[in-house]
Amino acid sequence: MRDEAVAWAVRVDDPGFADWDGFTAWLEADARHAEAYDHAVLAAEAADAGLIVPASTPVIRPAPALRQPLPRRRALGWLGGAVAASLVAVAGVQVFQDRAQPYAVETAAGETRVIALADGSRVALNGGTRLTLDRADAREVTLERGEALFTVAHDDRDPFTVHAGNAEIVDLGTVFNVVREGGETRVGVAEGLVAYNPDAENVRLEPGETLVDAQGVIRLGRAATGDIGGWKAGRLVYEGAPLTQVAGDLARATGTRVAVAPAIAARQFTGVIALPEKRAGFVAELGPLLDVEVQPGEQGVTLSPRNRVAP
């Protein structure tokens, strides 16, 4: 059992580890497995600090409902059965429990997913999105790329914070949408209130208000609250949006790579795009609506100027 626990500790520590179902099944197969796993990980922590203590020392853990036995630490490949057999010190146990436990959730282009956080909040991920979360703190989220709609369980004592690029978006009781694409961050508030970069610009956004931060240049706007996060209902709504933004949204939603020819990259589009259930090949049908030529290529499509026919 101890050797199995050590093996799982090594595997879970790998940043590419994905077999959470198998790990959970092993934990649930025997009530002693969770404690053995905790001992294996904590033994490595103690060894890093030059500590060796008896295996009989109990591990101090959160209540079962709050327990998250999935910490990652640096490589544990050196850890063998002899170390596991002499496990775990009382020193540093509580410190270990407070350590960050980051993990990532990622969607492929064209895929969506909704995750529930331990604090009662929910996050809907659009396609091509990557979030980094922390099992030790459900109130801190980093949007590395893509788009996410946050429905936050509000807590005045513990604000919910989204990091996107160099910016912080702090919940003040809210449903809000965030896009991180290239060097640009876009925020739209459907309900409640958020503070954008409270320690710097401190822009307060109310329902129906939007913000675009393009490499430090902030532009404010407005949108219907029902249109914010409309991608989740299969609806993309635009009011004077550049075609580059439309292309990025279509790529996330359909799984098709969409580029824009430089000559029309700044052209603005106003309208509504209703996404069908089956989205393969859908972008190719949007030429008339967007007033562009949709040119297929090896890696996707390119939106190009239309060839006008003289009367």
TrEMBL record:
Against InterPro entries, the record matches this protein to: FecR, FecR_N, Ferrdict_sens_TM
GO MF terms held by the record: sigma factor antagonist activity
Q: Which residues form a coiled coil?
A: none
Q: Superkingdom, according to UniProt?
A: Bacteria
Q: Show the stretches that span the lipid bilayer.
A: 75-96
Question: What Gene3D superfamilies does this protein map onto?
Answer: 2.60.120.1440
Q: Which residues form the FecR protein domain?
A: 105-194
Per the record's keyword annotation, is Cytoplasm included, yes or no?
no
What keywords sit in the KW lines? Membrane, Transmembrane, Transmembrane helix
- Taking every annotated instance into account, which residue ranges of this chain make up the domain FecR N-terminal? 3-40
Asked whether the keyword Membrane is assigned, the reply is yes
> Mind telling me which PANTHER family this protein's record contains?
PERIPLASMIC SIGNAL SENSOR AND SIGMA FACTOR ACTIVATOR FECR-RELATED, PROTEIN FECR
Q: This chain belongs to which protein, by name? A: DUF4880 domain-containing protein
